[in-house]
TrEMBL record:
It comes from Streptomyces mirabilis. Signal peptide: none annotated. One of its GO terms (molecular function) is methyltransferase activity. Residues 155-195 are annotated as: Disordered. Residues 176-186 have a biased composition (Polar residues). One of its GO terms (biological process) is methylation. This is Methyltransferase domain-containing protein. The keyword Transferase applies. Residues 6-82 form the Methyltransferase domain. The lineage of its organism: Bacteria, Bacillati, Actinomycetota, Actinomycetes, Kitasatosporales. Keywords: Methyltransferase, Transferase.
Length: 217
């Protein structure tokens, strides 16, 4: 959680599935305007509506079959005129990961600084395909490539609701993993920033955290 983002917004709701990550974020951002919530993003129901929903390096950890429901939750969380802002790894970042074949969802093997290895959901979204997928869900979206990453801004459909994506994806929606370990959260520097309007309402899905419990090999 970026203290600058907290200072610019009237209120911030920071959501993560891991208590360890939330503790790190609290230590970095001592602000009465920030509310920290421990919740599974696939079950969480937004208690209010926000001007901005921001998530960094989260989308690539969402199984493809769960994308429509996730984006519907984001749409429900946004106030009229609100936007979703997101940053994540593009296909070029795949060279830094060891992809795993024959998994129920796109996955990779990740090694932490302590030498332990974990199997994680990891989808390296192509900008054009992701744009097409979100457009098929009714979103108005602009995505810009940035080196190995991309940044996107999306406006929700007028009427949020379930739609089908046009692209062919993995069909298994079983959860593989959950929030990262404390070691990974520390090495990943759980920080985020967003250009939230001053006095606006900002919801943050913590940077560098994944939605599933990591499966140790």
């Amino acid at each position: 959680m970026d203290p600058e983002a907290a200072a610019r917004a009237q209120s911030v709701t920071a959501v993560d599935a891991a208590a360890e990550v939330l503790a790190l974020a609290r230590a970095r951002t001592a602000s009465p305007t920030v509310q920290f919530l421990e919740a599974d993003l696939f079950e969480w129901q937004p208690p209010r509506r926000y001007d901005t929903v921001f998530f960094a390096f989260w989308l690539s950890h969402v199984p493809p079959t769960r994308l429509p429901d996730f984006w519907n939750t984001v749409a429900t969380a946004l106030a009229p005129g609100g936007k979703a802002v997101f940053i994540d790894d593009g296909p070029a970042a795949a060279a830094e990961e060891r992809a795993l074949a024959n998994q129920p969802a796109p996955a990779a093997l990740r090694r932490l600084d302590d030498g332990s290895q974990y199997r994680i959901v990891k989808v390296f979204h192509d900008v054009r395909t992701l744009t097409d997928d979100l457009t098929a869900l009714g979103w108005s979206v602009r995505i810009w490539p940035m080196s190995c990453n991309f940044i996107g801004i999306a406006e929700p459909p007028t009427t949020p609701g379930p739609k089908r994506m046009s692209s062919s994806r993995s069909t298994d929606s079983r959860p593989m993993l959950s929030s990262r370990s404390t070691t990974e959260a520390q090495s990943g520097a759980a920080g985020s920033s967003a250009n939230a309007n001053r006095n606006g309402r900002l919801a943050v899905v913590h940077a560098y955290t994944s939605p599933w419990r990591w499966a140790a090999l």
